[in-house]
Description:
By secondary structure, this protein is an alpha+beta fold. It has helices at 25-40, 69-88, 141-149, 156-159, 188-195, 222-226, 248-252, 317-331, 351-360, and strands at residues 4-12, 46-52, 55-62, 113-120, 125-133, 167-173, 178-184, 201-208, 213-217, 236-240, 260-263, 269-272, 274-275, 291-300, 303-309. It folds into two domains: 1-120, Alpha-Beta Plaits; 121-356, no CATH class. It contains nine helices and 15 strands. The longest helix is centred in the first third of the chain and has 20 residues, at 69-88. The termini are far apart. The structure holds fructose -6-phosphate and magnesium ion (MG) (2 copies). The site of fructose -6-phosphate (F6R) has 10 residues, from loops.
Amino acid sequence: MAEKIxxxxxxxxxxxxxxxxxxxPQILDKAxxxxxxxxxxxxIVDFYVTNCGDDLELIMTHTxxxxxxxxxxxxxxxxxxxxxxxxxxxxYGAGQDLLADAFSGNVKGMGxxxxxxxxxxxxxxxxxxxxxxxxxxxxxxFPLFKIFADPFNTIGLIIDPTMHEGFKFEVxxxxxxxxxxxxxxxxxxxLLVLIGSCENYIIKAVYKKDGEIAAVSSTQKLALIxxxxxxxxxxxxxxxxxxxxxxxxxxxxxxxxxxxxSGWMRGSHYGPLMPVAQREANPxxxxxxxxxxxxxxxxxxxxxxxPRDLFDDPAFDYARKEANRIANFMRAHGPFEPxxxxxxxxxxxxxxxxxxxxxxxxx
Length: 363
Ligand code: F6R
Ligand code: MG
Ligand code: MG
């Protein structure tokens, strides 16, 4: 049987430069050195290190399967070493996503975001890795639905015999920690009842009807893990492409519309998700607007051939312009909903203190 390869994307905000806007080059170099050592020792097959805003992104291939302790420890140790350097440079919020003092077997629940999938490499294995900053994991619900279930986005669902039967969605109820499996097109309306509520139900994975993995996202909710504000989750997503799966162009197409996501300033606002080249993923205006980057790789015997920076394309100029226009419109609401998130979703609040103070003055 052909050997399976695992693609693991593990990320954390271990310190921002400057403020929460981007990452320091020395941090990226440190992470590259550590993963190069791990590659030389044969722990991983290949790796690519990048950043989306203030998030350090470790993209790794190996043969150890998902949730592997050695791989998670490698990521954790890399984040810890980078945090050490971030502290020396007094970068902003150094170590902000490392919520535990010591590694306990799996980085899930310890702060970092994780998306991993295991598969047998096809004759050619194109994948897209999406990485977001200043947004919550629900940001992928809209594009994942469009990619795998909307024929107005993905013509392959209609005219490609190998895609015509549709796809199966795994939806995670992040508040109750339960999973649902829903098939499209048969259960499309049921699926939409759930995933339209991006703060509660998050698409965790998408499969072909025969069970082959097609996409997987990170669904950690830092605020729920820590029980207090620790930043928005800035999620990642892996999507496999072509030959019975959506084409690269069908996978990128939903991002031509900069849909509203929660995040932005203080993790407490709705704003447009702006698709940008990696070099432009440095959110500045009002700490945003939220960004998404898309790196494409061909995987060959576990080697990451690439990346191609897929939003580095004038075809996405209009989406960026539109995002700026929507950003202006949303910003004009100032502290009012629906720019500011509803009370229960805000990551920062002064409401209890204010209510207490004004209730003392109540007549
Ligand atoms: C949002 C984010 C930033 C910060 C903001 C305030 O995810 O990271 O918008 O919330 O810059 O940061 P602090 O409270 O650290 O000064
Ligand atoms: Mg930060
Ligand atoms: Mg971030």
